[in-house]
UniProtKB/TrEMBL annotation:
Pfam families: Lambda_Bor (PF06291). It comes from Photobacterium frigidiphilum. InterPro entries: Lambda_Bor. Residues 1-18 form the signal peptide. Keywords: Lipoprotein, Signal. This is Lipoprotein bor.
Amino acid sequence: MKKLILITALSLVATGCAQQTFVMTPQESEPTTEQSHHFFISGLAQKKEIDAAKVCDGIDKVAKVEVQETFVNGLLAAVTFGIYTPREARVYCKA
């Protein structure tokens, strides 16, 4: 039982948050769209796409694109031993 608690604690400590942000126009706003992407086995041989130009009705209206692994996403990945590894994706459009 102690080994299981230790392994679980080490898994939680080893998980971290990660974020990739691509800023085209610096401005603060709420995301126009937010999607959860579901990956399995750490995303091995998988890809997900969001057409930001389509979401914002034109490439010139895209302000920022962001992909993030939140703490909850990392926790889910740790609990499932990397089998399920979700990510959050957000697209921000110019006002």
